[in-house]
């Protein structure tokens, strides 16, 4: 499967946008609706390596400011009104999923985590 196919597997169940980004900040693939600034990604990366530093803070993606509601070694979850973001880390990349109602952060987390577990199982 290509990186683009993996991103599409996040969009099909209902996420509004998604991306897979290497640990170095390089974009592997993103949905057409994924809006970001490379500076936003660079600002988030250190927190993804040490998620404890994100708790009680916020991150910006596509100009939307997400308040961090969960941050641990497995996942970072943020909310901004009716929008949510879930970020997980695999061996080679970070998976970012963005949702809006009616999907909600809970389902977003399940969708992103499922792909992350699949990629980790493949050594990716």
UniProtKB/TrEMBL annotation:
Subcellular location: Cytoplasm, Cytoskeleton
GO cellular component, one term: cytoskeleton
Claim: Cytoplasm is one of the keywords in the record: yes
Keywords: Actin-binding, Cytoplasm, Cytoskeleton
InterPro entries on file: PFN, PFN_euk, PFN_sf, Profilin_CS
Gene Ontology molecular-function annotations: actin monomer binding
Signal peptide positions on this chain: none
Taxonomic superkingdom: Eukaryota
CDD domains xrefs: PROF
Annotated Gene3D superfamilies: Dynein light chain 2a, cytoplasmic (3.30.450.30)
Any matching Pfam family: Profilin
Role noted for this protein: Binds to actin and affects the structure of the cytoskeleton. At high concentrations, profilin prevents the polymerization of actin, whereas it enhances it at low concentrations.
Subunit structure: Occurs in many kinds of cells as a complex with monomeric actin in a 1:1 ratio.
Assigned protein family: Belongs to the profilin family.
Protein name: Profilin
